[in-house]
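Quick start: read one record
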Amino acid sequence: MCQNHGVAYIKPGVVEVREIEYPKLALGNRKCEHGVILKIVSTNICGSDQHMVRGRTTAPEGLILGHEITGLVIESGRDVEFIKEGDLVSVPFNIACGRCRNCKAGQTGICLNVNPARPGAAYGYVDMGGWVGGQAEYVMVPYADFNLLKFPDSDQAMAKIRDLTLLSDIFPTGFHGAVTAGVGPGSIVYVAGAGPVGLACAASCHLLGAALVIVGDMIDERLEQARSFGCETIDLKKEATLAEQIEQIVGVPEVDCAVDCVGFEAKGHGVDSDVEQPATVLNSIMEVTRAGGQLGIPGLYVTGDPGAVDEAAKKGSLSIRIGLGWAKSHSIHTGQCPVMKYHRQLMNAILYDKIKIADAVNVEVISLQNSVKGYADFDKGAAKKFVIDPHGMIPV
């Protein structure tokens, strides 16, 4: 049997590449006839993974990480009808059965049947159903006909794999943040956070026709990356408030809509930029979004954070100025992106050269063995999206 290796979470700050079990078409003690085995072509390091690696979740030791997967089908169960061996496919990070009321309504991020603990599941993620992650050489994917997006031409897809690998999560997630914030032609939008999701969101805002995209962050290299594809930027380390800096750009201290691409490890702004204040982004985007505007919140918030700054935050309770949002009649949209709602259209945007998302998020391809260093560099704030190439299949 082929060997398999994967990136395992060991303890806060420590990951390592381990030999792991080769995947089986099985769910517990029964055969998974609706699943496939993938030879992984690309699998990406995500900021959500980094939350676990920092010890900011209840992730168990030995968890195999990775929920951003693109792969080649090498084995399929008896009940898989439409996905064939040899197909090159994108795997949504949401695991969805396709049968429950939420899946049938297109809410695949909160499938009711794939996680006994709560709605919604993902590969290699804490409290998300116990599914083995995909930062590995091989992985099993269930409900293949429903979940997988087949690329129409494998050679064309491999030529654009640095872009297409982002369809498993951050491109749809950033796009979802923009859509739920109401971004459209002529919008003036503020994107909080210039990590990979924030950059993908900013690029998505351009794709949706925004007139002006403003990105805020505290890391100079990430702000430079945002400027590289036409965004205005705000340095949140400065003493001037977010509203004051927006006014310098727009002429008024407000935007039409805003997207939180930071999540629960947010820090304060200005003199508090070194202090964790998890409600900072949520409160600041309510402050600067016009009355009647919309807020998209794809940034991750959790119900259990052992490293939080106070007891309330450890349970996900934050000091949100909901009164301000209510007074301004804001529409607020939270939760995981339902990847399948967008991935086919975004695939076409890539294949027909409407967007160069890999350039926007600054993709860097690394080997599986170099994934430990990739995690370390990402944790230091590298303005890159690390894509792991376990089998050396990505063209140079």
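The chain has a mean pLDDT of 97.
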